[in-house]
Amino acid sequence: MTKLRKGHIMNKSMTVSQDFPLVNAKYKLNTSEMKFILTAIAQIDSIEDEVLKEYEIKVSDLEHKLQTEQNTTRLKQFAKKLMSKPLEVPTKDGWIVFNWFSKIQYINKEAKFKVRIEEDLKPYLLQLKERFVSYNLKYILPLTSTYSVRIYQLLKEYEKLTKRYFEVDELMELLQVPKSYKYADFKRKVLQVAEKELLEHTDIYFTIEEEKEGRKVSRLIFRIYKNTHKKEAEEARLFDSQAPQDYSNLYGMNCKINGKICEHLLVVTLLSDGSINCSFRSGENYHFENVKALLKMKY
Questions:
Q1: How far is CA 134 from CA 8, 21, 210, 228, 280, in A?
Q2: Fold of the 142-226 domain
Q3: Where are the domains of the chain?
Q4: Is the pTM of this model over 0.70?
Q5: Beta bridge partners of 257
Q6: What pLDDT, on the 0 to 100 scale, is given for residue 237?
């Protein structure tokens, strides 16, 4: 078997897993900050890992995820701002406030971050046995609204139940929307944007039923559905004539990795450092050093 880049062969390299209380925490982040945090969390094996490690995030990967060029000054401002944004997690007898990271270090020569997730977040990220949410980071990266990311997480928690209820005031507080928002603003700038983005980019979508007290909308019922439109779009990539010529022969192939057969390659994403992310119809995601490394796994 060819040697793949350390830390990226694992099936979970694109999987984010979080305990329910962390999913339902209160915090206010912009989309870039949210994706940075989730990129770190995606490196955790939430079932097997026993300790939180030091995780690396390359600037080249960050630029790919955020779709914007970064410089040292901007990166430092980004890190300082992120370290000033705590999260509030509900507990059985109250609440607890954390920072996401205990440190964010930048290495100039290597153009990468080294981060340590706050140790007190360990119960919400490690040794998860039940009552946790898992999802693929690839569904998060295209979302442009941080509210869309949060709503996606909240609905994934209830995906199997197919619906979730929120009091309007409760949801607005949970998402930390500006206090100046009336319900009409909330519906137009948050709910309708999330509805559109989840349908276009993720594996679930939703509809909303409004319940009123008098004329005021007081309660929302989210109906949650599997996004077959997204699945059909991914399967169409198998025959996408617009796909880069170098990769068009890869779609549909099977791989055998660590003794496991991964069926029907659907999506190949080229990263700025020349490495590639691959998603398979059977649910696996792997990161390869290059196309040559992938082809050596062909089954």
A1: 18, 13, 28, 19, 17
A2: Arc Repressor Mutant, subunit A (1.10.10)
A3: 1-129, 142-226, 230-295
A4: yes
A5: 260
A6: 45
